[in-house]
């Protein structure tokens, strides 16, 4: 629980401290690599595979190396690559900053909501066996997967917010 709390707190702090008001023309059209055909084609072909790998890492994190943190970063890399090649204006059409802010909180709610449901069913916080009392192993698998996806969503959106804030040009 503390891992997700730390990344969520870092993301919210970043949003509150570094977010600057947007101004007209803050996304320069020269940032788009319109003349780089090979990069654009390879990126369009690569992004679906990067996303699938990110979801794989999140889903199989309970069984082996990986998990929500690693998979969340891989998912963020797909969006960051998209922004680097097609421009941040294109990224903002796909994932506007308010959506990434909301999804950061949704990830934490999935994580903490899974623990709260376990408590409401009579167990301890994150006692996954309570999710399926007849087959506790299935409850464990479901609970761990939900928690990993909650962490993955939060990490991915915080990484995207960090990228957007670092790429934002200062207004003069």
UniProtKB/TrEMBL annotation:
Location in the cell: Cell membrane
Keywords: Cell membrane, Membrane, Transmembrane, Transmembrane helix
Pfam family, one: MnhB
GO cellular component: plasma membrane
Membrane topology listed for this record: Multi-pass membrane protein
Domain Na+/H+ antiporter MnhB subunit-related protein, first and last residues per copy: 38-161
Annotated TM spans: 37-59, 71-90, 102-126, 146-167
Family assignment from sequence similarity: Belongs to the CPA3 antiporters (TC 2.A.63) subunit B family.
PANTHER family to which the protein is assigned, alphabetical: NA(+)/H(+) ANTIPORTER SUBUNIT B, NA(+)_H(+) ANTIPORTER SUBUNIT B
Designated name of the protein: Na(+)/H(+) antiporter subunit B
Lineage, opening ranks: Bacteria, Pseudomonadati, Myxococcota, Polyangia, Nannocystales
């Amino acid at each position: 629980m503390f891992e997700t709390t730390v990344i969520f707190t870092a993301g919210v702090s970043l949003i509150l401290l570094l977010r600057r008001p947007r101004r007209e023309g803050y996304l320069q059209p020269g940032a788009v690599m319109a003349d780089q055909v090979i990069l654009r084609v390879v990126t369009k072909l690569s992004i679906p595979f990067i996303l699938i790998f990110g979801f794989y890492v999140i889903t199989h994190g309970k069984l082996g190396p990986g998990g929500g943190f690693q998979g969340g970063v891989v998912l963020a890399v797909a969006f960051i690559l998209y922004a680097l090649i097609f421009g941040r204006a294109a990224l903002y059409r796909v994932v506007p900053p308010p959506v990434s802010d909301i999804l950061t909180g949704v990830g934490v709610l999935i994580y903490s909501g899974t623990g709260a449901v376990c408590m409401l069913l009579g167990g301890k916080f994150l006692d996954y066996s309570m999710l399926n009392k007849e087959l506790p192993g299935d409850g464990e698998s479901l609970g761990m997967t939900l928690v990993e996806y909650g962490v993955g969503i939060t990490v991915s959106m915080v990484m995207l917010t960090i990228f957007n804030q670092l790429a934002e040009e200062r207004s003069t």
